[in-house]
Amino acid sequence: MTPEQTAALADVRARFDAVDDAIIAAIAERLRLSDQAAAIKGPAGAPVLDAAREARSSARRAAMIADLLGRDRGGATDVAMAAHDVAEVAAVVDAVFAVLVTASRARQARHQAYLAMDASKAE
Prior knowledge:
Layout: H1 3-44, H2 51-72, H3 79-122
Helix pairs in contact: 1-3, 2-3
């Protein structure tokens, strides 16, 4: 690689690192929010799983992906490629959110169990 290519690659890698840092911070915040949701749901007797909410969230993410990729393409005429990009990003996002939602549900269930144990000790 030329020095210019090496420098350009270093810049791209630094941007990867910055995005990774933001993803890690967002995941940690999302898990903290799971604790807050559990603290609200538990005393209210609400279940951990809210299928309607998860369906709305999935639809919102799909719309956001299509919107962002449509804007990023700047009106590109290659519709097949744009559709492929949307499908590819959607597949990655779906996989990531499947893991996040599973972790969130498990965390909420544990949190609710701890709250129930504390409540029974207080009685």
